């Protein structure tokens, strides 16, 4: 019962919205929507938390999962990287999508709308291929 009173820090940025991935890279609207639904909760500086995030230990597990996801890739930090590092990240994103490693199956269990169709995978990978070649 005491566990309920322990809260985890929320992944909500104080950085202005103008410095996030969308404003830094200006993706097409369809790409932005796909990233928002399938990637940003775990790989950006702002998470849209579900109601069950307030229940412990689920909230702690989510906080840990988000922290690990951001450590591997944070879309909002990509603009701050050098071109070579950006290209490396874009290559990794493409590989993760093509190999069906992202979004994680555990995430899809509770977020079915985050699943990527073959068409959506192609939209995302094509976009990141363009960014990679710039």
TrEMBL record:
Stretches assigned to the Haem-binding domain: 1-132
Domain of life of the source: Bacteria
SMART domains, alphabetized: Haem_bd (SM01235)
Protein name (Swiss-Prot/TrEMBL): Haem-binding domain-containing protein
